[in-house]
Amino acid sequence: MKYAIAAAFAALLAMPAALADEFTKKDMERWQKDFDDAAKLGRALWVNDAPIKLGTNGVACAQCHPNAANTHPETYPKFQKQIGRVAALWEMVNWCIRNPLEGKNLSADSKEMIALQAYIASERKGVKLAPGKH
Ligand code: HEC
Which of 54, 105, 123, 125 is the most exposed place for a label (fewest CB within 10 A)? Predict the structure, then answer.
């Protein structure tokens, strides 16, 4: 059994690289739809229009960041004063959930945190990556 797995893995490694990138149209459409659904949920959370509320005081992300303005996802990871070290975007999302919204941290791999990041990133599509920039 062990050898069979090793052999299968070796065969996989031997495949031409391009082969691994051939997706079916159906796959691509499904993945795009899943991304669009995530960004849509992210937007609903952003404007406080989702079944789940991020905060406890009725404040919405959109009040200070309309259309995800001033979130600068392209600059992450970067040093953030509020956190005191180089931080990832989701950590600042949680910082704003805890502070202006008086809510509780979302886990990094929660559906909602991923949705918020999908929304932020889709609003900044095409912006050049500038990690660490202030
Ligand atoms: C009351 C206003 C206010 C609200 C509401 C608010 N934020 Fe912020 N947000 C700020 C401020 C102030 C900063 C800090 C700016 C800095 O120092 O970079 C910030 C920073 C951020 C950053 C990092 C921006 C950067 O330039 O690196 C992200 C991401 C972010 N907020 C996401 C959110 C999300 C998600 C929500 C809703 C859960 C939210 N914010 C709600 C005021 C707000």
Answer: 125
Nearest to 90 by CA among 115, 67, 126: 115
Give the integer Cα–Cα distance in Å for 80 and 133: 11
Report yes or no: 48 and 58 within 8 Å, Cβ to Cβ.
Answer: yes
Lowest mean pLDDT of 21-25, 35-39, 128-132, name the range: 21-25
Residues with CB under 6 A from ligand 1: 54, 59, 61, 63-65, 70-72, 75, 89, 92-93, 96-97, 100-101, 116
Structure tokens given for 132: 């660490």
In order of 4, 94, 106, the CA distances from 125 in angstroms are 43, 22, 24
Q: Mean per-residue pLDDT for 86-105?
A: 98
Q: What angle (nearest 5°) sits at the alpha carbon of residue 50, between those of residues 35 and 27? A: 15
